[in-house]
Amino acid sequence: MQSVLSGMRPTGKLHLGHLEGVLKSYVEMQDKYDCYFMVADWHALTTDYEKPGQIPENTLEMFKDWLSAGLKPDKAVMFVQSAVKEHAELFLLLSLITPVPWLERNPTYKEQRQELSTKDLSTFGFLGYPVLQAGDILLYKASKVPIGEDQRPHLELTREIARRFNNYYGQYFPEPQEILTQYPKLPGIDGRKMSKSYNNAIYMSDDEKTVNTKTGQMFTDPLKVRKNDPGHPENCVVCAFHKIYNVSECAAVEAECRSGARGCVDCKKALAVKINERLTPIREKRAEIDKSPDLIKDMIADGNKRAGITAGQTMIDVRKLMNLG
Length: 325
Ligand code: TRP
Ligand code: SF4
What we know:
The chain is mainly alpha-helical. Helices cover 56% and strands 8% of the residues. It has helices at residues 16-29, 41-48, 55-69, 86-97, 100-104, 107-115, 124-127, 129-139, 152-169, 208-216, 237-245, 250-259, 264-291, 293-321, and strands spanning 3-8, 34-39, 76-80, 144-147, 177-180. Helix 1 (16-29) links the parallel strand 1 and strand 2. It is elongated, with a radius of gyration of 22 Å. The model has no long low-confidence stretch (mean pLDDT 95). The structure holds tryptophan and iron/sulfur cluster.
């Protein structure tokens, strides 16, 4: 069976954009491939090295988000990057063959250095971020890697590094293909992209009341002032959510909005019910997980062990190919 590897940095709880994009595709893939899903805590440290305090809590939260969304430990190996030291060893070996200009011209690297200008990212580790990522992928000889658009340059680099390795030491690593996980058209409650940093996200772990409040705050068509004014659903966040969480009634919502038959207050209430319906099984699963904290720790330890076995086998081959002991 083909292998899949993907990772997420533990930078905070996951929101509905993650749920309907990346996580949904992880859940589908666990039935079709040999899946490895990793919490990339070392990658988080490349930008947050000054205050690593949040990383352990965020790592645990991330596992809870994954499990509650439907990932299953008997179907996919879920693990923590820093628990599998082979990631560091392969990172080192790959760094020996990676020309620095390949890293310096990486567009994601350039953008991030500008965007995160309050942090000092002129570090060796941050420049090497994609090499660490190439190691993550190649350790499991993944042929498919689900990623978002911003990660494409990193995957291209992974292929280049794999090719260079195979040239020097013999054909060994498959060149991984990306699977682009489509972010659904899911804005934040203010209409911008849903993001923790914009403070406009609905989280997977939000309770019913919070969802009701946030849905009530969603931006609607500014031209629809009174209940019976005709509206423009294309300019409304609530409508964008109906398209995802209320598919069967979405056409009616749009028609009634346009004709003025529908008021925004009712429209939001109806939506909140649908979002809560989607989140109910997820909340139940999370409550179950929270009841037995030891179980999730055991599950993580088991995932780390299973990832370590695959990674260990790869490293035996890699050391041999590079004439190391
Ligand atoms: N860099 C990825 C991100 O920020 C996370 C990541 C780390 C990753 N290692 C990976 C993704 C390996 C795919 C494959 O989203
Ligand atoms: Fe948006 Fe619904 Fe109000 Fe129309 S009626 S503007 S779709 S909230």
